[in-house]
Amino acid sequence: MIKMKHSIIPTFILSICIFNVAEAQVNEIQNNTTSVTILPGSINSTHISNNVNALNKDNLVLGKDALLGYSVTGPVTSASGNVVIGHDAMNRGFNGNDNVVLGKNSGYWSVFSDRNVAIGADALYSNSPNSGLGNNNDDNVAIGYHAMKNFWSYNSSNVGIGSLALENPSNSTVSVGFRSGNGGADRSVLLGHEAGYTGGFYNNVLIGYQAGFWETSADKLYIENSNSSTPLIGGDFVNDVVSINRPISSLSGTPNDKFQVGGNVKVYGNMAITGSRISTLSDFSSDFALNDQQFLVFYVGTGGHTVTLPSALPFVAYEFKIINQGGGAITTSVPFRTGLGTTSQTIPASSVLHIISDGTNWRKIN
């Protein structure tokens, strides 16, 4: 038999001791240079930690000071049904129930907070141990570094996915994307990298890269791929206004215009209009230039003035009605067609000129 010196080759012995124990026992795997002993209680136990909360109430805890449950009166044991993994994870969660918390410092101040999922370093951390902060934050899903980090009291029913997503107090909001909703929001949907970053609003729907980045007011719609305040598609939920390429701040100023477009519109196909056309009514008594906001205008001067017509090209199928109630004839800046090969530029007194654009010329209708 060959004997080997103990000083040359360290001996590691794993001994499993199986015997009946009269009382329940909990054991830890310790650093040991000579042997490791695993007792039956340790094999069967789910308490992979040694603090009081880990040993009670059906909690599964792994990590230094995880679910420590410390309060001003010392460790307490009210937390139950939690899965907590990570250094200092849910450290102060002495009365939180049915939470899944994974990551260093995640859910750190989750006191009286139930049914949350926090995955990522400092996710659902809550930024202060002071009076009540971190209390009663229920039914949240925070996934990502610092997601929902600064939630205080009664911030519930949120989904924040992405690093620094929904980092500040919010309620009933879905925020997906890096730093999306970072400033916090209520009852909103934010989808995209830094969508709704500034925050502090409610009832907004912001979709796209940096959509609504600077927005702080409520009840707005943005579909945009930049931080522009003139989104491709925008809306005002209070007034039920939808827009294309219009400044969001201007929509509430014209609440009766339910569909607004910033730019020219070309319709491919048929367009049916039910109801009367609404336009700006204007009186003029001197030279006057028509624009796309006017359909019906009245001349009330003494005559001899000029009405400037816009180019027919961008105004295809657009109509103007000019009513001369003045004391003399007026003229148009360009001729309008009155028939086959005939044109005119005169609008006599006490007459009406109704014209339409064919894309090249203005044509008289009446």
Q: What would you say about this model in short?
A:
Keywords: Signal. The chain has 366 residues and is mostly beta strands.
Question: What can you see in these coordinates?
Answer:
The chain is mainly beta. Among the domains are: 1-45, no CATH class; 280-364, no CATH class. Strand 25 and strand 26 (342-347) form a beta hairpin. Mean pLDDT is 83; it is low at 1-32, 42-47 and 128-132. 2% of the residues lie in helices and 29% in strands. The termini are far apart. Residues 1-24 form the signal peptide. Keywords: Signal.
Name a few traits of the molecule.
mainly beta, 13-stranded mixed beta sheet, 2 helices, 2% helix, rod-shaped, signal
Order of helices and strands: EEHEEEEEEEEEEEEEEEEHEEEEEEEEEE
Total beta-strand segments: 28
Helix/strand/pairing category:
mainly beta
Report the β-strand fraction as a percent range: 25-35%
Question: Which regions have little confidence, pLDDT < 50, spanning 5+ residues?
Answer: 1-32, 42-47, 128-132
Helix content: under 10%
- What's the end-to-end separation, in Å? 124 Å
Give the overall shape, derived from the CA principal axes. Answer: rod-shaped
| Cross-sheet strand order for the largest sheet | 3-6-7-8-9-10-11-13-15-16-17-18-19
The main pleated sheet reads as: 13 strands, mixed
Q: Overall mean pLDDT score?
A: 83
Number of helical segments with 4 or more residues: 2
Radius of gyration: 37 Å
Keywords: Signal
